[in-house]
Amino acid sequence: MMEKAEEILKVKGVNPTAVRILVLRYLLEHLKSQSLKDIEEGLMHTDRSSIFRSLKTFEEKKVVHSIEDGSGMIKYAVCPTGCNCDPQDLHYHFYCTKCSYTYCLLDNPIPIIKLPQNFKMQRANMVVKGLCNKCS
Amino acid sequence: MMEKAEEILKVKGVNPTAVRILVLRYLLEHLKSQSLKDIEEGLMHTDRSSIFRSLKTFEEKKVVHSIEDGSGMIKYAVCPTGCNCDPQDLHYHFYCTKCSYTYCLLDNPIPIIKLPQNFKMQRANMVVKGLCNKCS
DNA sequence: TTAAACTTTGCAATTGAGTTGCAGTATATT
DNA sequence: AATATACTGCAACTCAATTGCAAAGTTTAA
């Protein structure tokens, strides 16, 4: 039986190479979205630029989507089944300015935003910054 | 009569030095929030680190507030009268992924976000990315 | 089955924004 | 004026992201 990571790559039309499988498997194993650096540190023997390029390929083929969560680093998360990387698949993030931890605020829906005529939304990053319960 | 920039600095308790007056004047002359680079290019004979430190001082003394608008660069805008740099003073931004222009979406209020117990909001950056009318 | 073409990878180097150390200059204080 | 304090400019550094390039791996086609 084929491994999940490989399965996903195949379905999304991405050639399942060694690095790509490792990167995707790493993302699947972690609930929270991960930065390039997180992945680099998790996969200690894999080159950063190879991971970087895997992530770019994944993004293009909608295997993952990227998130700006206020940390200053781009984070990546595996697209859930049926995800079309639309804002409704997203949620607010809370970034603690003291401990630098990012929380997902899953209880708040992202409202529908009225855009001017002929503006097309592709993605949204909604970040609240402040102090978390441990730091305030 | 004292110039506006100087006036503001005096009121906010910031020593009105040459660089600071130039930086604040530059921000006052531009409706859109400006990045460090924008200001550096606007004030061609002023050192980047001096501008940078002016902005940090301004932020600390609530002369300006900073905004992450999706461009990847921190932008600065003069605090309007009565601004306490709270989320309600902010608005959504729309960043066009093709032409890299940032629009302010002034028609959409930022909703009240329910935070978990003991979380304190300091600031919010709400960015929608996509294609603007000229690029779609 | 071997050569050519294409893809992927690892390393090193570069970019770009932000930030800091330090010494010189300017301003304020006594 | 002498000293202390604040500000500025330059150069250097950080840190994440990104690119160039050649080597290694894989696929295609003669």
How would you describe this protein?
- Two copies of one chain form a homodimer.
- With about 140 residues, chain A is an alpha+beta fold.
- Chain A has two domains: about 5-80, Arc Repressor Mutant, subunit A, CATH 1.10.10.10; about 85-130, no CATH class.
- The first copy, chain A, is about 30% helix and about 25% strand.
- The first copy, chain A, has helices at about 5-10, 20-30, 35-40, 50-60, and strands at about 35, 65-70, 75-80, 90-95, 100-105, 120-130.
- In chain A, the strands form two sheets. In chain A, strands 1-3-2 form a three-stranded antiparallel sheet. A three-stranded mixed sheet of chain A has the order 5-4-6, with no helix packed on it.
- In chain A, helix 1 (about 5-10) packs across helix 2 and helix 3 crosses helix 4 (about 50-60).
- The relative contact order of chain A is 0.14.
- The model of chain A has no long low-confidence stretch (mean pLDDT about 90).
- The interface of A and B includes residues 70, 116, 123 and 125 of A.
- The structure holds a DNA duplex (30 and 30 nucleotides).
